[in-house]
Amino acid sequence: MRKSPRARAGKATELAESAWVIVLFCVACGAVAGALLPLLARLLLALPWSPLEGPAELLTSVPEPALTLGTTAVGVLGGLLLGFTAAHESLSVRVCDTHVTLTVRDSAQEFSREEIAVFFRDGKQLVLLGPDSLELAREHCGLNWQRLADALTGHGYPWAPEDPHRAEFRRWVPGTPGLPAGADALLRARAQARKDEDDAEEARELRGELLRLGVVVRDEDRRQYVRVVTGEGSG
């Protein structure tokens, strides 16, 4: 029978994705993509018209097996770079009886038991709410969700399968009434930032600015849903 994390009371439970698994997965994907690239180029040339005809002709002008070996090597290198980046940006969680630490890249956030109201899963993200129902953290999570839930509940922290305040959200459209002053402008800017994948950090910062106003944002595809938190601590 599997032992609950509570069986190790007093000891920290650490959860992290295997860096080597991430890297090897990305390398394998890169190798496959590189190996298939010559075939894709030949298929493009077989079409009556192709917008990439020039690059495809240049690529297929390299004789085999040098072509496939070369594209595979490039794919492996690309996968290696992507893998190390993904491993560096993956989330690790350290659960103690007194606090929980979330680490991404070289940045660690530590939350005491008193600061924590509930953890829950929102799609591929781990979310932490404080006692005032404002978000304290929202991080992309590649960890096994059941293991994470077991670790948290084993140390006595609340866990919910979804946002306990989900019913309070309403869809935002420009000019939505009832929002704090300045929130509508921030939501407009965030909607624009989310259209550009290069502005992911900008969208994250705008989410933080909205939290300072007491506005929690939930994303579904390109839509933004909001709930307003009132009372002390909502900014």
Quick summary:
With 235 residues, this protein is of the alpha+beta class.
Could you please describe the fold and organization of this structure?
The structure is a single chain. This protein is an alpha+beta fold and about 240 residues long. The protein contains 6 helices and 11 strands. The chain has 3 domains: about 70 residues, no CATH class; about 70 residues, PH-domain like (Roll), CATH 2.30.29; about 60 residues, no CATH class. Strand 2 and strand 3 form a beta hairpin. Helix 1 packs across helix 2 and helix 1 packs antiparallel against helix 3. The radius of gyration is 23 Å and the shape is flat.
Strands of the biggest beta sheet: in what spatial order?
1-2-3-4
The span between the termini is 47 Å
Strand pairing plus helix content: what structural class? alpha+beta
Helix-strand topology string: EHHHEEEEEEHEEHHEE
Number of strands: 11
Low-confidence stretches: 1-7
